[in-house]
């Protein structure tokens, strides 16, 4: 994977998560009635259309469009982290990309409707809880990414650092770009061009 592909991959993932999230929610809204449930794999997996005004998995700490605004602020913070993480491992960048995509997906719902469309309804063993709270693709992207990030940090503390070859490649590219900029500036800066020198010589 070249440098351009490496830098664009997380943003492509952001777009994929947003599109998948919004398309599935649109299908649910347009084809199901509120609180309707459709069996997919018996009682283990169902599509159940609910409108969640709280946080992910129906947590009620904050609600409505205020939560949407807070989500947008968090998304901007994660986007800044992604932009500044070009020296980090590609896996880290992809994880941050998935978190951004999920946050944007749910923020779109909150700002539009004041609630989030949830529809993935999973049954869990009775010894844990009756059923897992209904969720959506955006919730999955954020939750899985956070769990994966924490797990990798604990198990492999140094994974976030890019490989030495990637760092060297980035430094070389930056150096070439800097030299090109310097040469370009010198070429067109008045008084530094060869043409200006020749004109001065002729005047003497």
Beta-strand content bin: 5-15%
Element-by-element helix/strand order: HEEHHEHHH
If you average the pLDDT, what whole number results?
77
Strand runs, count:
3
What is the alpha-carbon Rg in Å?
Answer: 25 Å
Sequence stretches where pLDDT stays below 50 over 5 or more residues: 164-173, 193-200
Structural class: mainly alpha
Structural account:
This protein has a 3-stranded antiparallel beta sheet. α3 (90-113) runs antiparallel to α4. β1 (37-41) and β2 (45-52) form a beta hairpin. The chain has 204 residues and is mostly helical. It has 2 domains: 3-155, no CATH class; 164-195. 62% of the residues lie in helices and 10% in strands.
In short:
The chain is mainly alpha-helical and 204 residues long. It has helices at residues 3-31, 64-83, 90-113, 137-155, 164-188, 194-203, and strands spanning 37-41, 45-52, 116-122. The radius of gyration is 25 Å and the shape is globular.
Supply the key terms.
mainly alpha, about 60% helix, about 200 residues
Lay out the secondary structure.
Elements: H1 3-31, E1 37-41, E2 45-52, H2 64-83, H3 90-113, E3 116-122, H4 137-155, H5 164-188, H6 194-203
Antiparallel strand pairs: 1-2, 2-3
């Amino acid at each position: 994977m070249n440098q351009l592909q490496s830098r664009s991959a997380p943003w492509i993932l952001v777009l994929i998560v947003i599109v998948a999230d919004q398309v599935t929610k649109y299908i649910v809204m347009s084809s199901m009635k509120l609180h309707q449930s459709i069996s997919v794999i018996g009682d283990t997996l169902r599509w159940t259309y609910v409108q969640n005004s709280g946080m992910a998995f129906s947590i009620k700490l904050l609600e409505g469009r205020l939560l949407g605004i807070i989500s947008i602020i968090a998304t901007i913070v994660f986007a800044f982290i992604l932009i500044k993480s070009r020296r980090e491992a590609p896996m880290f960048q992809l994880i941050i990309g998935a978190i951004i995509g999920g946050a944007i997906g749910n923020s779109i719902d909150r700002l539009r409707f004041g609630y989030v469309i949830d529809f993935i309804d999973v049954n869990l063993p009775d010894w844990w809880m009756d059923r897992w709270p209904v969720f959506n693709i955006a919730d999955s992207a954020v939750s899985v990414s956070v769990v994966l990030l924490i797990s990798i940090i604990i198990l492999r503390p140094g994974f976030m650092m890019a490989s030495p070859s990637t760092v060297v490649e980035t430094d070389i590219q930056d150096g070439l770009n800097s030299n090109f900029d310097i040469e370009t500036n010198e070429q067109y800066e008045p008084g530094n061009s060869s043409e200006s020198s020749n004109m001065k010589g002729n005047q003497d």
